Amino acid sequence: MGMNRLKTASNTLIRWGLAAAIAVAAPAAFVVPAIPAQAAQSGDLDRAVAALRAISTMRADFVQTDRTGQSISGVLTLKRPGKIRFEYEKSVPMLIVGDGHALTVIDYEVNQVQRWPIKNSPLGALLDPGRNVSRFGKLIPTGNPDVLSIEVHDAKHPEYGTITLIFVKKAGAPGGMELVSWVALDSQNKRTTIRLTNQRYGMDVSDRTFTFRDPRKTGRR
């Protein structure tokens, strides 16, 4: 990755905040005009919620693409409830961690740390145990019974942004549905793509995984 590309990725993450760093557009190929019946919507939404709740731990490779088409990759580690880690490729001196309470962006290039309450981010739908996905979510039709697209948006808190979660039916995944991508759209309608591959489940993950080296001081927090 060239220096200009690195600086663009870094500045984008800081300027847009965490919401943009974890956003993705729902794949256009999945969308069809038909609107499913209410009963089917409710059942599919329940399936997606059950799949999320069935994940205890997960590790996956990810590719993050911003609205300009620039992409960076890394490894995501998830541990419920509320813990997540985005570890970027070595050329990107940045880390994002969620400790169950807050999401933190650490930029080692400029020794900067920024934190957001999990509930204030679109990722709250994925990480916040108190967020009722079925209450704030709606099914986006895909035309494929094996693919679910769930848009989560709290109309009373538009500042939290919107996240669209894409699941694909897979027998070996928790709850029988595998999370393959998501969209987090911030309150300024800025977004970035996260796509997951090589998902693995149920491994032991230490809570230390969700700590970080604070560039402003020695030691870890």
Q: What report would you give on this structure?
A:
This protein has helices at residues 3-16, 18-21, 38-54, 124-127, 133-136; strands at residues 57-66, 71-79, 83-88, 94-99, 102-107, 112-117, 137-140, 147-153, 162-169, 177-185, 191-201. With 221 residues, the chain is an alpha+beta fold. It has one domain (3-201): Lipoprotein localisation LolA/LolB/LppX (outer membrane lipoprotein receptor (LolB), chain A, Clam). Strands 6-5-4-3-2-1-11-10-9-8-7 form an 11-stranded antiparallel beta sheet. β1 (57-66) and β2 form a beta hairpin. The relative contact order is 0.24. Mean pLDDT is 77; it is low at 1-40.
Order of helices and strands: HHHEEEEEEHHEEEEE
Low-confidence stretches: 1-40
Q: How many E-type strands?
A: 11
The oligomeric state is single chain
Query: Mind telling me the C-alpha Rg?
Result: 17 Å
Shape field: globular
Distance between the termini: 29 Å
Query: Major sheet: order of its strands?
Result: 6-5-4-3-2-1-11-10-9-8-7
CATH superfamily: Lipoprotein localisation LolA/LolB/LppX
- The CATH topology is what? outer membrane lipoprotein receptor (LolB), chain A
